[in-house]
Amino acid sequence: MKTITLSNRFYYHELDEKDASAIKNDLVLYNSMLHKAYKMLTLKNKGIYMKSSELHKALKKEFGTNDYFPLSVLWKAQSLLKANHEHHQLFIKQKKQQLKRIEMKISKKQKKIDKLDKQIQKLIEKTKEGKQTEKDYLKEVQVLKPQKKCLKNQLSQLIFKRNRNLQIMERPMRACCFGGRKLTKLRTTTDIPHEQWYKEYHHARNHLISVCGRRQGKYSNNLFKYHVDENCLIYRCSSERREIKLNIKFHHDAEHLIKAVKLPHNTAGKAVQYDLIDCKEYFIMRAVIEVQVEPAEFNRSMGTVGIDINVDHIALCETDRHGNCVLLKTIPMNLTNKTRNQRKHIIRNTAKKAVLESVRSNKPLIIERLDFKQKKMNMRYEKKTHNR
Predict the structure, then answer these.
(1) Contacts by residues 160-167 (CB-CB < 8 Å, ≥ 24 positions apart)
(2) What are the backbone angles phi and psi of residue 96, rounded to the nearest 5°?
(3) CA distances from 34 to 195, 268, 345 (A)
(4) pTM, to two decimals
């Protein structure tokens, strides 16, 4: 299991001018290398570029840095490429489900059209025999033929939609958009001044340095040296070849970081990944630690705690060893008219309350396995309020 701990803020105006400039230069250098590495790996997957062993040397030669930035950049680019590939596979799977649904609708429409054709053909034969009445004529002209025309129109739209989805499925995987597609489109859709837009876009593209950890060594990382006793973090710049000393204090879960740094050389769990996150006026440090957690051993013979997930609450039930209910509880979860981050916060707190009930009773937590992918495909053409 991985856990993170965040540091205090480091304001640029409080640092030495050369140190602040070196950090900003490193942010641009790291992300420029990341964009280049992602492009090189994309071409390599297409069989157009060099071998994997030569990518590291090419980055190091082009940007003139030591080994540590290219290693971290390639690791980050590979993870981004893998995530994009999995997202593309999920997208193809969803499109296939949509195609099945469209094919079913096309089949139903075609059967209705064939049925109307038979009725119209019977009326035509009746007319040839001279047995058609005024009622038959009005039924053919005012009912059957308009229905057929409407169904044909719906059928043509469904066929167009099917062909369109087939074309979309043949497209290659979408590349990663550094800086965000929202900001990219914002330049052409709004009248924001170019300088203001470019400032936001430049920050979105160059706001993070992520250096992977290393368990061979004293400080668990190549570029960041955390001196636990002195509460000091030394950062080795790659652009100007200088060391920056930061008086740092980590907050939540800092004990895991201290434990990882103090582990012996080449021990599992010693590697610590450090992220430098730029927040315009200041930056913070984030440490990612691998924590070895042994799963708790629960005995179902003493009973269980089961939960049922609903729209606005979680229903919780605790049973004894005979299966009898000993506790019923409702945990409210109001998600209406909330932003995305607010909903995440409410869901996190609600889940925490349910887990604490399981810890209190020392019984395993039973949760239903929900998968709404197929359900969403079936409800695609329903009303918005009903789907919600």
Answers:
(1) 161/102, 162/99, 162/102, 162/103, 162/106, 165/95, 165/98, 165/99, 165/102, 166/99
(2) -65, -40
(3) 24, 28, 31
(4) 0.76
In the block, residue with structure tokens 């042994």: 294
List all residues 6 or more positions away from 87 whose beta carbon is below 8 Å from its beta carbon: none
- Residue range 186-203, pLDDT digits in tens: 777 777 888 888 888 899
At 171, list the tokens.
Answer: 């497209």
pLDDT in tens, 1-20: 788 999 999 999 999 999 99
CA atoms within 13 A on the CB side of 27: 22
Contact status, residue 184 vs residue 208, Cβ threshold 8 Å: no
Helices within the chain (DSSP H only): 17-45, 52-63, 68-128, 134-139, 145-169, 181-189, 194-205, 254-261, 340-361, 373-378, 384-387
What does the radius of gyration of the chain's CA atoms come to, in whole angstroms? 31
Q: At what angle do helices 181-189 and 194-205 cross, to 10 degrees?
A: 170
